[in-house]
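Quick one:
INPUT:
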């Protein structure tokens, strides 16, 4: 019997004339992907006994959607012979100024049982897949009315430290009996084999598998892709390094991320320029040791590899920023959210001359003002603003309540804000109609608009859009707590704390103009020339009696982000 698919196909990086397909197979083989007259082939490469291939098809028609087939050693394995799904389509991007981008974060794979729905909420990726399936069938297999140009999954695609029962069962069977206290935790993945199974379980739900096979998808990691609170601080790094299983854990987590998520983010030219990829595909044997060495180096030396990447499409620019692995945190008095290389790269990419500049990171750039002030205060305290004795309690608070978003890295926040203000004011070419920050992580969604804190004027709308979670809603008590920190009183208290620790005023002022919302949701950013709209879609609440569980018209929140003739920002001040 020939090779078969273990995971995929996943439709990944796409341009106006190219599309990338990623697969994992159960044995070494030759992979061929074909759509119309276009064909791409690749020989699988092997890492820790697992086999992968990345195929990029070129010369495709612009803004096209072609059914495609996957062959392994001449045998067709996709579409599956008995599939009841519409054909998977190979999508390319349009050359005009219109696009629809779906985005979200924080996805826990569930069984979709009533018990799981009560705990985690409805799985929005699965619900959206069902919506597209219905539309594609009505259109005889063509793209539907809500098909996105791109799907952005911006953090926590897998939860390596919050496992479902099926994954816990796999760990027990894979590891056998527990021998000592130095063994890995029973409820967290550690080895590459365990990460490979985690991804398999996350992406083999039939509806989600089909969705990822037919919508171009770009991804970013967040902490749970490796471990909760990953790289929160230098203290955290030193404490976790003393754990016997940490080195294999972070090595496996980063190596798996590079294979399962990051390679598909890149163009063929970018993969060819990646020295690790060049070595792996040229290796006739198992490249596990080579990938492990790279992954450990990326962890130990954050400036050694750039995980951030960009994509220009139409007249728009998308920047996907690493806010986890590249952090520089060893010195608490000079913490940086971004690596030195990423800081320079982002500054160079933030320019005018585009209709919309989109900066996506797993963590929101503009947090609710009260949280922003609290995190900025905590960073200053941990650096010694309130004296040496306050640093320990400050660090404990930082780790206990996750005070580690952009505002907890003021140097990076100010640098990025400065770059954006220069682009929005026209110092770097014709200002974009909007600068849009996309974020996730926080398990609630909102819209915030910003303006310069001083007298300077900008010609671009500066807007934060957060969509989180797709499937992992907050328990009720935490929702009330998060609602409370968006109120004006808590913002005033936070601002006073920040001033007491010597935190300089922010170069931006903002407030939440919409939200917070605590449903599982998926957001859609619609670009049409210099106009941009956003909407968040959620199924009706459980027990509401409104519509079917997957009725996307039952709970939609729509907002205009920018107009064709956007002028000087008049956003009210932060509250």
């Amino acid at each position: 019997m020939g090779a078969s698919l273990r995971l995929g196909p996943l439709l990944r990086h796409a341009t106006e004339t190219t599309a990338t397909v990623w697969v994992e197979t159960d044995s070494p083989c030759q992979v061929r992907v074909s759509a119309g007259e276009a064909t791409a082939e690749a020989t699988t490469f092997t890492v820790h006994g697992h086999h992968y291939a990345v195929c990029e098809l070129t010369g495709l028609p612009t803004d096209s959607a072609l059914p495609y087939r996957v062959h392994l050693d001449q045998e067709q394995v996709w579409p599956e012979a008995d599939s009841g799904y519409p054909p998977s389509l190979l999508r390319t991007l349009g050359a005009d100024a219109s696009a629809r981008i779906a985005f979200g974060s924080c996805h826990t794979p569930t069984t979709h049982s009533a018990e799981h729905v009560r705990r985690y909420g409805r799985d929005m990726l699965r619900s959206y897949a069902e919506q597209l399936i219905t539309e594609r069938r009505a259109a005889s297999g063509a793209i539907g009315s809500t098909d996105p140009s791109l799907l952005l999954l911006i953090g926590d695609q897998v939860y390596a430290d919050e496992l479902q029962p099926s994954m816990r069962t796999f760990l027990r069977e894979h590891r056998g009996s527990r021998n000592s206290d130095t063994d890995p935790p029973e409820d967290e993945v550690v080895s590459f084999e365990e990460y490979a199974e985690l991804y398999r379980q996350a992406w083999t739900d039939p509806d989600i598998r089909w969705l990822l096979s037919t919508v171009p998808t770009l991804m970013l990691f967040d902490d749970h892709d490796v471990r909760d609170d990953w790289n929160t601080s230098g203290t955290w790094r030193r404490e976790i390094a003393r754990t016997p299983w940490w080195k294999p854990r972070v090595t496996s987590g980063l190596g798996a991320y590079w294979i399962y998520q990051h390679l598909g983010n890149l163009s063929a030219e970018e993969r060819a320029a990646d020295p690790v990829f060049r070595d792996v595909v040229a290796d006739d044997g198992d490249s596990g040791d080579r990938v492990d060495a790279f992954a450990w180096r990326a962890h130990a030396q954050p400036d050694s590899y750039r995980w951030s990447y960009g994509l220009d499409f139409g007249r728009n620019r998308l920047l996907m920023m690493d806010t986890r692995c590249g952090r520089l945190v060893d010195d608490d008095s000079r913490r940086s959210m971004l690596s030195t290389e990423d800081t320079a790269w982002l500054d160079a990419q933030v320019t005018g001359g585009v209709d919309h500049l989109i900066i996506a990171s797993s963590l929101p750039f503009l947090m609710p003002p009260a949280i922003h002030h609290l995190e900025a205060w905590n960073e200053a305290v941990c650096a010694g603003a309130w004296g040496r004795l306050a640093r320990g309690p400050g660090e404990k608070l930082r780790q206990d309540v996750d005070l580690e978003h952009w505002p907890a890295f003021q140097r990076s926040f100010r640098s990025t804000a400065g770059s954006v203000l220069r682009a929005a004011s026209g110092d770097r070419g014709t200002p974009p109609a909007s600068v849009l920050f996309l974020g996730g992580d926080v398990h609630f969604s909102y819209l915030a608009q910003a303006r310069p804190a001083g007298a300077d004027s900008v010609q671009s709308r500066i807007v934060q859009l957060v969509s989180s979670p797709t499937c992992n809603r907050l328990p009720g008590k935490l929702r009330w707590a998060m609602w409370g920190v968006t109120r004006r009183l808590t913002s005033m208290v936070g601002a006073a704390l920040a001033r007491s620790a010597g935190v300089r005023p922010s170069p931006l002022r903002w407030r939440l103009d919409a939200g917070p919302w605590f449903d599982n949701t998926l957001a859609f950013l619609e670009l049409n020339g210099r106009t941009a709209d956003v909407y968040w879609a959620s199924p009706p609440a459980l027990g509401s009696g409104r519509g079917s569980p997957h009725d996307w018209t039952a709970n939609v929140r729509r907002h205009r982000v920018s107009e064709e003739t956007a002028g000087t920002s008049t956003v009210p001040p932060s509250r």
